[in-house]
Amino acid sequence: MQQAQPFSTLVSALSRTLRAANACLIDLLAQEGVTGIVPSHGDILMCLFGGEPVPMQQLAQACRRDPSTVTALVKKLVALGYVEVSRCPSDGRSRRVSLTDKGRALKPRFERISQCLLEVQSQGIDVREQEVVMDVLGRVEANFRKEDHEDEDNA
Q1: Fold of the domain built from segment(s) 12-123
Q2: pTM score, two decimals?
């Protein structure tokens, strides 16, 4: 049996790492008493903590997600009472998302959770190694994004 090249297992390793990180995140959310929220809501909430209201299209771009995915995630956050959706005053067809009081109350919890995640992910890894990892992962992501665009061009 031929052994796989180390780089050929990168996507698998990334997938396992993401699952482990999400499990850690879910545990931290539970410890903070946050219910109903899943890891995929995090980018949306973090974007809204930075300033609101945010147009739905801008939110999708900031989260690097398909607009339909963001719409579904926002609907869940609306149902949980963390955000509300309203029409953009400048364009009645567009929607914008803002935090409710309940959503704003999450900010200090998310800050604690984010700090804990940073501490866990950095254990035993010095700053230079973290910089190298971020550089390499950025290039790998760019490679996949480039391939996606090439596939669209050839379609």
Answers
A1: Arc Repressor Mutant, subunit A (1.10.10)
A2: 0.79
